[in-house]
Write a structure and sequence with these properties.
The structure is a single chain. The chain has 360 residues and is mainly α. It folds into 3 domains: 64 residues, Dna Ligase, domain 1, CATH 3.30.1490; 84 residues, Dna Ligase, domain 1 (2-Layer Sandwich), CATH 3.30.1490; 112 residues, no CATH class. Helices cover 49% and strands 9% of the residues. The chain contains 15 helices and 6 strands. The strands form 3 sheets. Strands 1-2 form a two-stranded antiparallel sheet. A two-stranded antiparallel sheet has the order 3-4. The protein has a two-stranded antiparallel sheet with strand order 5-6. A hairpin with a 2-residue loop joins strand 5 and strand 6. Helix 1 crosses helix 3 and helix 8 packs across helix 9. The model has no long low-confidence stretch (mean pLDDT 91).
């Protein structure tokens, strides 16, 4: 008969063995969940919108993720969320995700974790905010409609120091690494801060030129951005930007130009059709029509409204900004396309008509 002390020792050993076995099982299970969390989701990479409701339970979120076909196994996803992501708070509100995201990346995005993936975003010079919104959504950065709403949110633009009710013109064209599934407000802030940094650099370097535009043409720094956005849309070749800028600046000053101070830029009218709700009746898809250019109900129509339009029409790059600040010294008042992205410039309307007849 075993001594009591021996029995106690054996009992402790059995309990320890059970504990070790249980710990090992849990560790293996956790390891399996960790490995599984890297597997791709059930879809083929399609962008989807998913909203986490305020104070929504994890069980409800998981059920809706399955219904949206964003996860393949709700049981494994729930286990991964509760075991390896205990305490993770999912961010209430709309999210932009892909249906092929792994559980690990999906939770990072829904929680808006700093460690979530990024998107390589290239913003070309001359993009407007509508074009940019579609690119951002396609790359999984943020929802297109929400981005457009934030760009036109006067309270947000005011908080960023923009002297206008829209951030158009201040979404600086450059290459960015933006966090996936970001809030539109955060994205707009990043782009505007880059624009402000570039403008501050130009104001330091070309302070006299900013002062000259103010003195000669009555243009504020914001007006320089507005005119640069038009130059950006009109110029296909970088070396023509200072020439095109000179034409518009001459039109603002020259007393012989008729109609007085009319910039007569087709892209401004097109932009008015893009942002007005509802758009003017004259608006049609494609190139501007004569009816569009006659329509005075479009406030961006610079054939019917003198001076600058109500705001920028695109994102001007540094080249267009410099062109407005340091234009080529000319007496040109007209230009017309000549093919290959180039233009022919004229001093008089009769020269301009001849250039039009020779244009392709």
């Amino acid at each position: 008969m075993a001594a009591p002390s021996v029995k106690k020792t054996q009992g402790r050993m059995r309990i320890a063995a059970l504990g070790i076995g249980l710990t090992a099982t849990l560790a293996l299970g956790a390891l399996a969940l960790f490995v599984w969390s890297f597997f791709a989701g059930p879809g083929a990479g399609r962008i989807q919108h998913f909203e986490v409701h305020e104070n929504e339970s994890d069980a409800s979120v998981v059920a809706r993720l399955q219904a949206a076909q964003l996860i393949g196994s709700p049981r494994l996803f729930s286990a991964y969320l509760s075991v390896l992501n205990a305490g993770t708070q999912l961010a209430a509100g709309p999210h932009v995700v892909r249906d092929d995201l792994s559980a690990r990346e999906l939770i990072k995005r829904l929680a808006r974790s700093p460690g979530r993936g990024t998107a390589h975003v290239v913003i070309p010079e001359g993009f407007n905010h509508v074009q940019l919104s579609e690119r951002l959504q396609q790359l999984g950065v943020c929802d297109a409609e929400d981005f457009r709403r934030v760009v036109r949110d006067g309270a947000h633009t005011s908080s960023l120091g923009i002297p206008a009710g829209s951030a158009e013109g201040y979404l600086f064209p450059a290459t960015y690494e933006l966090l996936a599934d970001s809030t539109p407000a955060a994205v707009v802030t990043v782009l505007v801060q880059e624009a402000q940094r570039r403008l501050a650099k130009l104001q330091t370097e070309l302070g006299a030129q900013f002062a000259a535009r103010q003195a000669e043409h009555g243009l504020s720094a914001h007006d320089v951005v507005v005119l640069a956005s038009i130059v950006e849309k009109e110029a296909a070749k970088a070396d023509e930007k200072p020439l095109i800028a000179s034409v518009f600046l001459n039109r603002l000053l020259d007393p012989t130009f008729r109609p007085r101070r009319m910039l007569q830029s087709d892209p401004t009218a097109s932009y008015g059709c893009l942002v007005q709700t509802p758009p003017p009746e004259s608006c049609t898809p494609g190139r501007p029509t004569p009816a569009m250019l006659r329509d005075a109900t479009n406030p961006y129509n610079t054939y019917r409204h003198a001076g600058l339009p109500p705001g920028p029409i695109s994102s001007p790059g540094e080249g267009a900004l410099r062109a407005v600040l340091t234009p080529t010294k000319t007496d040109y008042l007209y230009f017309v396309t000549q093919g290959g992205g180039r233009h022919r410039f004229s001093r008089t309307f009769s020269e301009h008509r001849g250039a039009i007849e020779q244009s392709p």
